[in-house]
Amino acid sequence: MTRLLLLSLTLLSSIAWASDEDPCRHAFSTWMLEQHQTFANRQLGKMERRQAERAIDKARTLFNKNGDFCKTMAELDAFKDKDPRFTARGGEIHDFTPVL
């Protein structure tokens, strides 16, 4: 009887965790898609594309560390204004087009 109770609690908690994670997974996927589209858009400026690339790298690092979509999104929101990778730094644009 005790085993049945523990098994049912385990299953219910995993189902609850999955349903709580779904909105975060959707938000993370949408955000990552937007960042990838920004990075791939060659009509945008170099700094916008670089910021998107940095945001993607940071998100991957955070998700690999946490393994949790909700925690990753919360940390990305916290880093947005503080992490230097999300803000432009002067003089770092590298244009490899030869000067003629």
Verbal overview:
The protein has 100 residues and is an all-alpha fold. The protein has a domain at 23-86. Helix content is 71%, strand content 0%. It contains three helices and no strands. It has helices at residues 2-40, 46-66, 69-79. Helix 1 (2-40) packs across helix 3 (69-79). The termini are far apart. Residues 1-18 form the signal peptide. Keywords: Signal.
Largest sheet: none
Q: What is the percent of helical residues?
A: over 70%
What general outline do the C-alpha atoms trace? globular
- CA(first)-CA(last) distance: 82 Å
Compute the gyration radius: what is it? 20 Å
- The computed structural class is mainly alpha
Number of helices: 3
Q: H/E series, N to C?
A: HHH
| Low-confidence blocks of residues | 11-17
Number of strands: 0
Report the β-strand fraction as a percent range: under 5%
- Quaternary organisation: single chain
Mean pLDDT: 74
Put the structure in a nutshell.
Helix content is 71%, strand content 0%. The protein is mainly α. Keywords: Signal.
Write the topology of this structure.
Elements: H1 2-40, H2 46-66, H3 69-79
Task: Looking at this protein, list some descriptive labels.
100 residues; mainly alpha; 3 helices
